[in-house]
Amino acid sequence: MFLLNPILFVCFAFLFVPLFLGTGVSANASPVATTNTLENNLTFDQWLSELRAEASLRGISTETIEIALSGVEAPSTRVIELDKNQPEFVQTFTRYMRKRISDRRVSRGRELLKKHEELFKLIEQRYGVQAPYLVSFWALESNFGDLTGGFSVVQALATLAYDPRRSQFFRNELLTALEIIDGGHIQSQNMTGSWAGAMGQCQFMPSTFARYGVDGDGDGRIDIWNSLPDVFASAANFLSESGWRGNERWGREVLLPDNFDYALSGQDVRKTVSEWQKLDIRRVDGSKLGHSDQTGSIVLPSGASGPAFLTYNNFRTTMVWNRSTFYAISVGHLADRIAGEGNIRHMPQKEERALSHIEVTELQQLLLNQGINAGKADGILGSKTSEAVRHYQLQHGLIADGYASHALLSKLREHIFNE
What we know:
47% helix; globular; two-stranded antiparallel sheet; disordered N terminus; mainly alpha
């Protein structure tokens, strides 16, 4: 599961909370008080009354409004807790992959790929998305449909829409959810999902459902909770519309030469396969890449000491679904494993030491103090922070892999101390 794209918001949120959160947890946990300190100073009941009026103006039937909102009495403390909660430490690539890719998950993915072979063939013919990738997304989003979230989507979205931090975003999602119910796709009591409102086996936000949802089984409804034709057609439609190419892979693990210029790593640098080969980038088995006009970028998820990947267009498309580099690699690698390929060859022998959010914030602030634009010092490792790290590394003759590590933080601290 995005602020610019609704599915991305939820998936980005999953970077800071456990995957598949909310499963089996009631959204009717102890409610908070119905008063709020919003600028308009509305109580929750007053706010809900205004929402009913807006829903009616959008053409949503009175019956749907009353049934769907009748059980929504007050914001859920559990949803607020999960929304505000962030783990103390930033997850490392090694830990992230270990939690998501297992022999058991690969084995089950292969079984389900074979079981639904005919359905996947039809989906691929229509949308051009290869079956192993659909199975991989399915696995990572909901553990093959087992863990779709136990929250009432309407209750969760009402809670988040009433909260002032991102109220307009979630208000729109809530109204769209009501339109989905009004369209007969799902009954309100069966519209369950994550605490952030992501729904069904592919974890779509309501607005993503409205834009990309597909009635794959032809029954007149889009049911991403129970109908596999609808789940896979909807996911494939999203990927296809986002730029997926059915005749290409996501990327591959590669070997970098000893003299590789690490300033060429990162998704902002794109070269053709032929150009990378001229720089002596090789397949992980040591063979040549070959000649192709297909463009790709070198991605180093755990810095110069970890594995290197040459990533293509479908990797970038996966990051439309979820902006996390780790997530995009996990989708591609799991799809490869399901298709019969082996493990990543050059995973770190020892798990990297994770930076805490406080340490990331300190690192960002130290970069800012050096006059290097690291964006907001918010404790979140994003692309702007990586580019700032790379800039600092280039200035000081370090390997410019853009990787924020404890060693780099120590170097920054030492640099400030010696000034």
